[in-house]
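Running log. JK asked me to keep both predictions on one page so they can be read side by side. First protein, sequence followed by its tokens:
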Amino acid sequence: MDFLNKLKITIFITILIVICSETVSSQQWGNMESNNFFELQQQFEEYWKDKTIEKGKGWKQFKRWEWYWKNRVDAKGDLPPSGMVQAEMEAYQRNHRGSKRSIQANWQSEGPDYTTGGYAGIGRMASVAFHPSNTNIIYAGAAGGGLWVSTNGGNYWQVTTDNLASMGVSSIAIHPTNPNILYIATGDGDAGDNYSVGVLKSTNGGLTFSTTGLNWATSNGRLIRRVLMDPDNPDILVAATSNGIYRTTNAGTNWTQVQTGNFYDLEFKPSLAANIWYAAAGSAVWKSSDDGVTWASMQTISGSNRISIVGCVQIYDFCNFWFFYINGHNA
């Protein structure tokens, strides 16, 4: 390499060093050897306190960095070490090996799983209920096959409703202290393949049923989706139907329509003397704070055509979080 080329390279490197040095000295707040958010923030403020904010000087870039990290540092302002997220994830996986997430559920069919009629199948099961004191007694309601009862934990099933005017059972409610008393909501509340004749009542454990005050003809084209019993007063029942919400205070003898509308689901708030109830309609969630006597819409969900109340998270005896299944194009 000749002398002239060497001189040119030397001059270029010298100029580059000078430019870099000036840049570093003009933005000292960005070159602190610190991993502390508050120290970096203070250095930045000291640098800019008597200066005019100019474009291209790094002010905006620092403010973006500051906004991102201000809620991600600890109480002392220390920034998290690199690789922390990966390390925490690996620690979680080590500590949760063999947890419920990695254990296969042990499910087995309890029937009913066969019938000699129709297509030699059982169709859709719409509801299930359990005897309050005898775990071997189980009730299952079919969308078009009536009420089935097992008295030996599901090994054998018997249908008890072949002679009813409606073969659908969409919901079952059992008296908590006198399980011989139970109620069924008739009709196919899910798909409407058969219509309801109202709420029926049994006083002999589901062997036979009689009509209650909520008594319809199938020609009315109505459906009952859910019937629930007040846990503090078994004589009070509430039913969610395609023709509104109905309530009885005398064990089904008389029913009153307390709210109009097309309702799909119903739940009461646990551990609060059952004073608060929730009902789901096509695009709204309703609430009653007086044991189902009066109702008010509490939430509208635009674009939905059916809402089901999936469950409630109960924390310290309060039902704080409700989960809803929404079926709709835009929900």
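And the second, directly underneath as requested:
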Amino acid sequence: MKIARQLGFEHVARADRESLRETLHGWGVFRGFARVFVAAASKSAEPVEWAVEAAADRATLVVVGDVRTDLPRNACYAKELSVVYARSYGPGRYDPAYEESGEDFPIEKERWSLRRNLEGFLDLLARKQIAVAPLITHRFAVDDVARAYEVVSNGRTASLGVLLEYSKAERKPATTMQLAPLPARKAGTIGVGVIGAGSYARAYLLPGLTSDARVRLVSVANMRGVSAKKAGEEFGFARCTTDAREIFRDAEIDAVIIATRHKLHAALAAEAITAGKAVFLEKPMCLSEEELERIVAAQAAKRVPFMLGHNRRFAPATRALQEFFGGAQPMNILYTVHAGPLPENHWLGDPAQGGRILGEVCHFVDWCRAMTGAPVSKIVATIRGELPNEDVNAVLNFADGSVATIAYDCLAPAKLPKERIEISAEGRTATLDDFARATLVREGRQKTMNFRGKGQAEMVAAFLAGVASGQMPVEFEEWVASARATLKIRESADFADSETTDQT
């Protein structure tokens, strides 16, 4: 109560529901408050019930704190109350375009956005119209953070505002942390650095590295330091960092795995190549012709082992189909993808990330190229919908006479299998569902085969084997051709008669 008065509240009272009405009358508040802010943190709904009692007819309850809101229906109905939940900081919070891309709302559309709320607060603070000193009960040096957390959590010490103070001496913040001793370099081992420690990398790429005896896990980089440290400790890296360039400068690193969000792929790949590192680049290779040419130029200047993360061409089911068809030509391929809509606010919905055509349809283009073994000679495509949920129908003509049709559906029901492939050539037919089950028919005889995985483990193993031997399983020009063909799908959607010749 003392602190509340120091902060400028005219009237202060203990939270006593029994005497609430008498307290309000003593303050001259006979009809209740027009607005009641609930700033409590409680597992009980009692603070909200008090707020309902203190509210006037047609008042607004503003729920600020983390409190249960089991609203008494009859009391709220009788007063015709409005309830507003205050999202922290203001408009822009939890909005990826705002928080990650820095896109503020036009002031004429939203006067008090998150940033302008903070600006207003700092302005009031500078003019000493807001007092925060009474809120501060403890101060600790940042190196004494353990004591600070003890004060906050022990329940025995009364605390409100606990500050961590940094030394006033200027020092450059560390970007790299040593997690464990780095094993000595041995003949035949590969020092690996990873950029990007998201869910895909942790689920499919990093496990393949940790299980290979040739790999020395040197360093992992991620934009968020906590994520970098967590991945480093989980998979056994010697170091973690928030600076991707540390990976390129590290002499202990021979190969770089790049698994960031898509807009960073081309720039990081070009830098890694220039640094002389072997490169595994998660798809897509690029988001524009200009980015593609940057990678091509870097590779021409300093030839390094390179692999693009098109795992499906390495899948066990793919190898089985290639053996079944045995080079039969021409092929007729129908590749149907029931992609389904993206979750709301998914990062791939950001136009800067290139969208789903460049980010996912590239997989299916590359698979068709790998299956036919022939260059693309012509592409015609149509696109429906808006980014990120764009449906694509693309027809790829190949130099050997093969034709592949890719039907990519963003609004398909979730119960449908995601990927279904139908192939025919020289009297042989095959269907493949989700790279898990294939039905093969030849000369009237049918055979069913079951598989596991879409090739991620095999892809990582092939990359490491290629780096170790100096002989990559897929030529760099093959990856360039797949990337260029995917870019042409977008172009062809606008110019349906456009043609492109593969550059392999």
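Observation for JK regarding the second prediction: Residues 495-504 have pLDDT under 50 and may be disordered.
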